[in-house]
Amino acid sequence: MQIPKCVKQHSFELDPEVLEELEIISDRYNSVKNYIYSRYSGIKSLLLIQNARKNIRDIWTKDNFAEQWKLPARYWKMALEEAVANIKTEWSNIKLKTKRAVYQNENLTEDERYFILYVLKADKLLYAILNRESFDEPKKLMELEIREKYIFNLICRYIRKYKGDVPYTKSRTFSLDADMYNYKTEDGVLYINIMGLKRGNRLKVKLRDHNIHKGNVKIVLRDNSLEVHKLKYVKQKKATNKEKVVGIDKGYRTLINTSEGNQYGEKLNEMLSEETERLNKINKERNKFYALYRRYKEQGKTKKAEDILQNNLGKKKYNKKKKQHDNKVKSYINCELNKFIDKEKPSEIVMEDLTFVSWKNIFPKHIKRKLSRWIKGYIHERLNYKADLIGAMTTIVNPAYTSKVCSGCGKFGNREGDLFKCECGEYHADINAAINIKKRKFDSEIGLYTPYKQVEKILEKRIKEVV
Predict the structure, then answer these.
(1) Predicted model pTM
(2) If exposure means fewest CB atoms within 10 Å of the residue's CB, which of 7, 79, 219, 397 is most exposed?
(3) Which of 176, 175, 227 shows the shortest CA–CA distance to 205?
(4) In 312-359, which residue ranges form alpha helices assigned H by DSSP?
């Protein structure tokens, strides 16, 4: 089995003229993507994006609509394909979240739950319901007894809730197909020649290595240089231990706590805390300058306002330090995940699904600031990737009450800092949760979508039976 991997190729510092043209390409490329997002990510375009080549690309070509962006055709076509792919992914995520909400909604009957899940798989039916249009019901749905008005409105509410804002992009990136670039070696140095804005013109970029890629690549502009990102596939390794199931608890104090009693990434909280407090302090100071800048603008003191904007509110140093910290955290996360994989050698990793949990009422403000510094989805994505590399399964379980129940006797207990206290003794709170997460995999009564109130009833019933 082949596993996808992003290989990065770095350039030397770019010539100012080359950098300027690449930035223009990036800006125009993202303008195309943002137009697609604003025009076609809504509910009225749900069916249009299913065949974007016919419904969008061919029409743009025929009407010369894309000429407004002043990009070679290959560029805007790549931008269109990329944006449409992202919109489709967004719809898949919306449907997944809606599905989760449907399973957890105790007010729905089995017929109503089946109806909604069926509609989520049929885009034509979903389109009709979202746009309040009539449609012919399939025979399977005619036999169901549902509260039609309530269910239709519920579907609309779920989609509206999980859809979020238009996913505009501000990234300095663009993609190239195989004919939009080529490699050339001169005096032992490798160069990549990238299609420019003018016909027949190529932008020459000096590279730091001698790797030659083929097929589609992504160009990422980094200050005065660029990176070439290529998606490649590496061979999956065989799991070294065919029958070792490990439960893990992901926390903000420690990266990973395992059901085997081990901890990884104990410095993560310290790293996040230092950076969070540093940024908090800097932002407080910058807010004073923002207030002064606005006051000068209101008073008509344009020169003083511009001086503050230029000398006190710059972003270059701010963003550079933030990026350095993010890269440091990423490196640390990967290092600790490698230690976890090498030491535990799991054949299956069981973890809780916290994707839909709101931190609003769970953690105090200072901890939420640290959590907000987490690179969104990075830990989860890297854990899944490293598990795939060794052929280990990843299983998601219901997280309800895994941190509130004793892994020894099954009774409810109390957490005090890193300690979990129960009638039968004291345990490390996160390791106790990791053991419960592992046990949850084998729990036939508590499924992934079992509502937390029902989970509580099941656990209370078990305690009474034991007593």
Answers:
(1) 0.79
(2) 7
(3) 227
(4) 316-344
